[in-house]
Every structure is written in C-alpha cells, then in structure tokens.
Amino acid sequence: MLSYPVTLTPDSNGTFLVGFPDIPEANSVGDNEDEALLNALDALETAIEIYFDERRPVPTPSKVEAGQHSVDLPALETSKVLLWNEMLSQHLRKADLARKLNVHMPQIDRLFDVRHSSKIEFVESAARALGKRVEISLV
C-alpha cells in the first residue's frame, strides 16, 4: 500500500489546509483534522487522475516521519498506480497494453480509472503482461 505523507496547516478561519509534499497537485481542506484527512484521500485520487490523464508517472511517497499524518491509498488504487508507473517505465502506451492483453481500449481506460472498481484478476493479468506480479500481504 502506498502511504503518502500529508501536511495539515490550520488557517485563520479555523479550518485545516491539506497538502501532499510528494504530489503538489493534491490539495484539500477540512473543518477539523479528521475531516481534512478524509478529504485528503479524495484530493489524492483526483491528483492521480491528473497524472494518468497527462501520461506522467505518479510520484511514489516519501517516508512518513514520526508524528506526521499520512493517507493510505487503498490496495486497488495502489496496484493501479504501480501498474501505471511500470507501463510508463517500459515506454508502453495504453494501446500497447490492450494489445498485450488482447482486450479493447475501454477495458484499459477503466483499469486506469482510480474510481472504477476493477477486478483484481484483471490487474494481475496486466501485471503479468508487463512481466510483473501482484503481491498482497496482511500486516
């Protein structure tokens, strides 16, 4: 799971501004710390969509320091980000992955939609097509 460090900054209105040192496009706000952290996940997912749309690799998170807040990207979204970054590192396009998997482009578009509940089996197939495998563990 990718765990991104978060900055929470109180403003003069008593609300908290949310920022991500690793993903400057992700910003949000909340009336209190709990709400700010809840809104932070949505901001992170929205920023990841920007990276996907712009065909840029998604930055991996830096180390969360002691006492620092963080937001955990859910497992499915984490696997999509890692798959995306691997595809780009191999200089492949979504169309190339569609050909490798023998599927139509809409299926690949849904695979890289962070808000779509893709089946993990399809994520595993895509990883195998890139010469990788998905590992899951409980900690």
Automatic annotation (TrEMBL):
Transmembrane segments: none annotated. Coiled coil: none annotated. Residues 4-90 form the HicB-like antitoxin of toxin-antitoxin system domain. This is Type II toxin-antitoxin system HicB family antitoxin. It comes from Sapientia aquatica.
